[in-house]
Amino acid sequence: MSLHPSPLPHLPARTRAVLLGALLAGSLAWAMRSLLVEPPAMAAACAASPWAPGPCLLRALAVEALLQQRIGWLALGLALLGLRWPRLQAPAAACAAGGLLLYAADPSAPALLLALLASLGGSSSGQPSASSPAA
Question: What domain of life is recorded for the organism (predicted)?
Answer without folding.
Answer: Bacteria
